[in-house]
Write a structure and sequence with these properties.
Pfam families: DUF7342. The chain is mostly helical. It contains eight helices and three strands, in the order ααβααββαααα. The chain is elongated.
Length: about 190
């Protein structure tokens, strides 16, 4: 390699020591594989309570200004709703997300397949209902049920989560099976 011309070379005062390459931000953190929009969308999906743009930016791993722009866009699309003004807080719009899932189910599955899925999930929900001997998972206290049945809290939590998931799937599948002329938004699940 050719040395630079003398006037272009740094003297000893300009470069007392080599840079600390370990202190530099790793390239994988500078260049992310996912798109920024996807990062913010994932952050919004992770919300369980109203959050500020700062909160969403932190979850997404991006700046607050970008968070505000995406939250504004997501609100116009119906993905989030603004809950308060000062400070502005947002929450995910679960009804919109459910509607999107129903549309996807309708696109990806034939009626017969949806009926089979509904039968499977309904049977699963009924089995779990009979296991707990109550009508809703909301009626169960994790700690009390675990103690009364001599099961671990983790085991009870997993079974209750499976029951809640089955019930949600039944509701979505029922909505997907409603006639395409209506959106099924007023349909109440039998579970």
């Amino acid at each position: 390699m050719e040395e630079p011309r003398e006037e272009l070379a740094a003297d000893a005062d300009e470069r007392p020591e080599a840079p600390d390459f370990e202190a530099l931000t790793p390239p994988e953190e500078l260049v992310r594989g996912d798109r920024t929009r996807d990062d913010f969308f994932d952050a919004v999906l992770a919300l369980h309570s109203p959050a500020t743009a700062n909160d969403v930016a932190e979850i997404a791993g991006h700046g607050v200004d970008a968070a505000r722009e995406y939250l504004d866009w997501f609100e116009r699309m119906g993905i989030v709703t603004q809950v308060t003004d000062s400070p502005a807080t947002y929450e995910r719009n679960q009804e919109y997300l459910n509607w999107r899932r129903v549309q996807k189910l309708r696109q990806e599955y034939a009626t017969e397949e949806l009926l089979d899925l509904l039968k499977t999930e309904s049977e699963r929900a009924a089995k779990l209902e009979s296991e707990f001997d109550v009508e809703s998972p909301d009626e169960i206290s994790l700690a009390r049920y675990a103690s009364e049945t001599d099961r671990s809290i983790e085991d009870v939590w997993e079974r209750l989560s499976a029951w809640q998931t089955a019930r949600r799937r039944v509701a979505l599948l029922e909505r997907a099976l409603t006639t395409k002329s209506g959106d099924g938004a007023d349909l109440q699940s039998a579970v």
